[in-house]
Amino acid sequence: MPPGKTAVFLLLVCIMASPDQVISKNPICTKKQREKILEVCDYFIQPGYPIRLVSRDSPCCVAVREVRDRDMECVIMQLTNQEKLKYSVEKIRALHRLCELPPPAPPHNHQVKQLYK
């Protein structure tokens, strides 16, 4: 087989062996997750001003954290043209950062200091 055809064949094999994650059995985000985010985050993702800050403890952030890696690009890719007009893509994208939980606090060293001898 000529080198060019071999390269094309190998490329096709790789594409077939690596299905797109959006349509695989374990998608990055689902239509149901997108719909839930649009519903519970509606107040925070309206275009324009005012800019409303979302609390990490809000139902909106809980929904965002249900998406693997809080991947809002996956949610944005699923938006219809009408939804792209109704919601701010940039505000949806910002939910990734805004809904991140802080790292757990380091364990405290509970050693008792002896004050008197």
Please explain how this structure is put together.
The protein is mainly α. The protein has six helices and no strands. The chain has helices at 3-17, 31-40, 59-65, 72-77, 81-86, 89-98. Helix 2 (31-40) runs antiparallel to helix 3 (59-65). The longest helix has 15 residues, at 3-17. The radius of gyration is 23 Å and the shape is elongated. The relative contact order is 0.14.
In short:
By secondary structure, the protein is mainly alpha-helical. Helices cover 46% and strands 0% of the residues.
Strand segment count: 0
Mean pLDDT: 79
Helix content: 40-55%
Low-confidence stretches: 6-25
Name the shape in a single word.
Answer: elongated
Structural class: mainly alpha
Features:
117 residues, mainly alpha, 6 helices
Topology:
Blueprint: H1 3-17, H2 31-40, H3 59-65, H4 72-77, H5 81-86, H6 89-98
Helix pairs in contact: 2-3
